[in-house]
């Protein structure tokens, strides 16, 4: 497949992602082996591919639901203001909730999600995040399961976008800085 012109380099290839997601699924399956009612809450749109792959590798019963939050729009700058656009359908009270997110950058989004879900009295609440940019953190948020740490670059592919582009690339790639810094 042709690498798009605005992609600088591939950071994590398909095979490496697949192996790591398999490991995460094994860990989650072990940790939740004795609970019923595990609910995976995927954060739209960025986590849709990660969640689909992770969920299909789980060896324990689980349900899948989604939540949608406001995004950065077309820029690469976080306002720190998070808005809920679509809520989950399921009532999570007394259930085990695992938030599945594509990437933690400033931490504002995951911080908002954890606070929001904590008020709904779940039996437990954890996060499973594919990518983290530790150098960009403004809010200290707990990540219980992490795929990869990456440097401070804008990444696309495997669900992640730039202005809604490149979500379905099979790998995770860094955009050319001139694309998002202009
Ligand atoms: P935070 O609230 O600053 O941690 O940002 C988290 C959200 O910003 C993620 O859910 C992504 O939707 C988006 N985001 C942050 N960095 C990137 C990136 O490099 N590529 C694509 N989306 C990103
Ligand atoms: Mg997101």
Summarize the structure.
The chain has helices spanning 14-31, 48-57, 108-118, 177-181; strands at 7-12, 38-44, 62-69, 84-86, 96-104, 124-132, 145-149, 155-156, 172-175. The chain is built from 4 helices and 9 strands, in the order E-H-E-H-E-E-E-H-E-E-E-E-H.
Describe this protein's structure.
Helix content is 24%, strand content 29%. The chain is α/β, with parallel strands linked by helices. It has one domain (14-153): 3-Layer(aba) Sandwich (Rossmann fold), CATH 3.40.50.2020. The strands form two sheets. The protein has a six-stranded mixed sheet with strand order 4-3-2-5-6-7, with helices on both faces. The model has no long low-confidence stretch (mean pLDDT 94). Residues 46, 71-72, 78, 101-109, 154-155, 160-161 line the site of inosinic acid.
